[in-house]
Design a protein that fits this description.
Blueprint: E1 32-37, E2 44-49, E3 64-65, E4 68-69
Antiparallel strand pairs: 1-2, 3-4
Length: 81
Amino acid sequence: MTPKRGTAPVCPYCGYVDKDALEIDFGPGFEGDTVHTCDVCDLNYFLSRYVSVSYVSRPLARIAVGNQPLEAGDSILGEQK
């Protein structure tokens, strides 16, 4: 069986999809490796967690305070810098 990345751990022996992956202890940090026991067939397997981060940015000039659009240099509270 070729290992594949997915959104949930899949037991390589019985194919069980573990939907409680947030409960698995991978140690400190976001990514990690552990030996995990399948909840169905009770066999141990090696499990790695990989984390991807994405961001979304929007210009403040498009946010309006009351009926007044923000100008460059204004804070969200409408105060001038």
